[in-house]
Design a protein that fits this description.
UPF0178 protein G8770_12090; alpha/beta; UPF0178; 44% helix; 6 strands; 147 residues
Length: 147
């Protein structure tokens, strides 16, 4: 198992959890972003800087990940693509994307996007908090223990 991180929008606490987990579990973790990233010096941590552009990081992750890998992303279309390839996917709040729930998540995402563009919904996602961090860490630990 390798871990792939859609790092442009991943909260800093999630990255810190991933850095510790990669070291502890000895699993290669690659952060993909369209900007330069710094990570602690570790043989298990890598960064890939892709060119700027729509879905460039997402496309890179889809091309590189394999069945059984783990992808960390809040991007539901990216999650759908990697789940289709047989990879595992979780968001920074620790919620797993599965073949059983991904279509519903895509439909809800599209619905909310339509509501926001029409002005009927103006708020975004709730603030990332300690409970979210704990849920992410717990889900990550469970997935790493299964490998």
């Amino acid at each position: 198992m390798k871990i792939w991180v859609d790092a442009d929008a991943t909260p800093k606490p999630v990255k810190e959890i991933l850095f510790r987990a990669a070291q502890r579990a000895g699993v290669t973790t690659t952060l993909v972003a369209n900007q330069s990233l710094s990570v602690p010096n570790s043989p298990f941590l890598k960064t890939v800087q892709v060119p700027s552009g729509f879905d460039v990081a997402d496309n890179y992750i889809v091309q590189q990940c394999e069945s059984g890998d783990l992808v960390i992303t809040a991007d539901i279309p990216l999650a759908a693509e990697v789940v289709e390839k047989g990879a595992l996917a979780i968001n920074p709040r620790g919620e797993k994307y599965t073949p059983e729930n991904i279509r519903q998540r895509l439909a809800m995402r599209d619905f909310m996007e339509e509501m926001r563009s029409s002005g009927q919904v103006t708020d975004g996602p709730k603030t990332y908090n300690q409970q979210d961090r704990q849920a992410f860490a717990n889900t990550l630990d469970r997935l790493l223990a299964k490998r």
